Amino acid sequence: MLRRLQIRDFVIVDRLELEFGGGFGTLTGETGAGKSILLDALGLALGARGEPGVVRPGCERAEVVAEFDLPGPGGLSDWLVAQEVSSEDGCLLLRRVVDLGGRSRGWINGTSVTLAQLREVSEWLVDIHGQHAHHALLRSDAQRSLLDSHGGLEALTLQVGERYHRWQAARSARVASESNAEGLAREREVLSWQLDELRELGYTANGWDELNQEQARLAHGVSLIEGAESTISALTDSDMAIAPVLDRLSARLASMAGVDEGLAPIAELLATAAIQLDEAGHALRRYRERFDLDPARLEELDRRIARISDVSRKYRLVPDALPALLEETERRLADMEDSGDPALLAERERQAEEAYLQVARELSAGRALAADTLSRAVTEAMQRLAMGGGAFAAALLPMDEGGASGLERIEFQVTTNASQPLRPLSKVASGGELSRIGLAIQVIASRSSATPTLIFDEVDVGIGGRVAEIVGQMLRRLGDERQVLCVTHLPQVAAQAGWQWNISKGERDGATLSRVALLDENGRIEEIARMLGGVTITDTTRRHAAEMLGLADLAA
After folding, report:
1. Using CA atoms, how far apart are residues 41 and 300, in angstroms rounded to an integer?
2. Measured at the alpha carbon of residue 96, what is the angle toward residues 105 and 81, in degrees to the nearest 5?
3. Between the chain's N and C termini, which has fewer beta carbons within 10 Å?
4. Pick from 163, 154, 112: which is nearest to 448 by CA?
5. Reduced to 3 states, what is the DSSP secondary structure of residue 321?
6. In terms of pLDDT, which residue wins out, 215 or 259?
7. How far apart are CA 124 and CA 129, in angstroms?
8. CB count in 10 Å sphere of residue 447
9. Could you tell me where the beta strands, DSSP code E, fall in 468-526?
10. In a 3-state reduction of DSSP, which class is residue 413?
11. CA-to-CA distance for 501 and 529, rounded, in angstroms?
12. Can you state the angle between helices 465-479 and 539-555, rounded to 10 degrees?
């Protein structure tokens, strides 16, 4: 769960360090005091988009550090190991810095990471429900996503999408083959002729250099032999041959070194040179003896080089690229052989469709179970939220052929009157009813989530009185299972919390700053009285606030 949040120079916050407790807690205060700013700061640490405007005026950068308890083995722990991020102390520090230019950097436990990695981590740590989340529930895709999440079906949904796209690709290949059979036949004929021509060359990747080296050696054979013989003569065979002269000089200098040891290294150098000259002479004789002037081989090489050059120019490639062209031609022709076989393509399509239907039916079965539990739970919650006789259903509407999201469309249906049939949520619920139903769905769906921290940002807009108290009780019970934070303007909700912060706004040195205070019992009475009353807070209002807190404690 979230343990600590440190904020520096973020919007109207200069320096703030908050320590969070478990259970259900609320953040209250006047409108504009900065309640949502705290959640925005947390969102920044979790990978939300950073902009220059988040930096407090007059400052160079904004910085947010969020500390979480590290969940148990598996999941996030495995992800951290894969990303080579240390997690030795059982805690997770997420740090984000944004400068005046909008550039930002992020870290996890001191290791620099991308924003995408921060967002990945956030999925294991926090689930944030915004104040307009119930409006999103009017969209079919949002309804499907919530139901799949409630049923733990996200991975299966992704698998269905992948198999659907494979099926459609197989179908497209079959249709393309049927509609362009004549064109494919012509292309296959051209490729076959091209393949025969390239194979006839018998050409390998390093063949061009080897051919040219051998051709150059044979073409210059006479001059190479003449050069070798003249060098041998100069080294050993002529009257002025170098090797004998060097031998005599080496022997004389060795004799002189017997008198002056300082000449010994020089004598050794001359002796070494004489040995090397002798070896060079022997090597040249062997070269001359092995050299074979073969006019027929030279003619053959000239023809082969000319043929390769012609083919290269034909395909507008350098000779070294011909082996790659051969491989590409073989691959394309093999693909075309498949694409020209209607029976094979139809079989591939059938197999892809069957693979899709197998996982899609499994997803449908999972959705049916999830829809049943969600429908019953939300219907029960509606009775407690002043919607007696109302009912909710997550309906699975079959589609003719299915799609990337499965074999059915998800539609949330509701009736607020027992005598009326279920109809789509978007066409039935009023604003207040939508707020209550949406909140019930979010709270119930959150129970099936493994996320340790849940945040509700003014999701109780549009309700009040007895309903607000029931909402507070729902959130309190949810807080028995995990950490729940709620930004609220409703005293009935705030009174149900185990702890409460007050966010206020003040001035210091001409700058408007946000302040946060953890309220004790008397502070909570004053704050809830403010939320209950108007401009003037009376003793009666305070007694009412104290009574609300007392009743909440009794209910707990």
Report:
1. 78
2. 85
3. C
4. 154
5. helix
6. 259
7. 15
8. 13
9. 483-487, 499-508, 511-518
10. strand
11. 14
12. 40
Contacts of 478 (CB under 8 A, 6+ apart): 24, 443, 446, 447, 454, 484
**Residue 163 to residue 405: CA distance in whole angstroms:** 10
Q: Is the model's pLDDT at 70 over the cut of 60?
A: yes
Task: Say whether pLDDT at 295 is over 90.
Answer: no
Q: What is the pLDDT of residue 205?
A: 59
Assess whether pLDDT exceeds 80 at residue 463: no
pLDDT in tens, 91-109: 889 999 999 888 899 999 8
What the block records as the tokens of 115 is 């924003």
What's the confidence (pLDDT) of residue 96?
A: 94
The one-letter amino acid code at 211 reads L
Do strands 61-69 and 91-99 pair parallel, antiparallel, or not at all (unpaired)? antiparallel
Confidence of residue 314 (pLDDT cuts 50, 70, 90): confident
Helix or strand run (H / E) with residue 112: strand 111-113
Amino acid at 8: R
∠130-155-414 over CA atoms, to 5°? 50
Query: Quick one: residue 462, left, alpha or beta (phi over 0 = left, psi -120 to 50 = alpha)?
Result: left
Token pair of 329 as six digits: 């031609």
Whole-number Å distance between alpha carbons of 383 and 386:
6
